[in-house]
Amino acid sequence: MLGNLSTPELSALLALSPSIDQIGTLERIARIQARSIKGAAKIQGLRMALSMIDLTTLEGKDTPAKVRQLCFKAQHLHDQAPDLPTVAAVCVYPTMVGVAKKALGASGIKVASVSTAFPSGQAPFEVKKLDTLYALDHGADEIDMVISRGRFLAGDYQFVYDEIAAIKALCGAARLKVIFETGELDSLDQVRRISDLAIAAGADFIKTSTGKIQPAATFPVVHTMLSAIKDHFDKTGQMIGMKPAGGISSSKLALQHLLMVNEVLGEAWLTNEWYRFGASSLANDLLMQYQKQLTGKYQSAAYFSID
Amino acid sequence: MSNSTWNLEPSLESVAQVQIKPQYELFIDGKWQAPLSATYFATVNPADEKQLSQIAQANAADVDLAVKAARAAHANVWSQLSGAERGKYLFRIARLMQEKARELAVLETLDGGKPIRESRDIDIPLACNHFFYYAGWADKLQEAFPGQQMEALGVAGQITPWNFPLLMLAWKIAPALACGNTVVLKPAETTSLTALKFAEICQEAGLPAGVVNIVTGFGDTGAALVAHPNVDKIAFTGSTAVGKQIQKACIGTPKKVTLELGGKSANIILEDAPIDQAVEGIINSIFFNQGHVCCAGSRLFVQESIAEQVLAKLKFRLQSIYVGNPLDKNTDIGAINSKKQLETIEKYLAIGLAEGAEMYQPECTLPSQGFYCKPTLFTDVAQSARIAQEEIFGPVLTIQTFRTMEEVVQKANNSPYGLAAGVWTANGARIFGLSNQLQAGVVWANTYNKFDPTSPFGGYKESGFGREGGRHGLSAYLKFSN
Question: What was the ipTM of the complex prediction?
Answer without folding.
Answer: 0.94
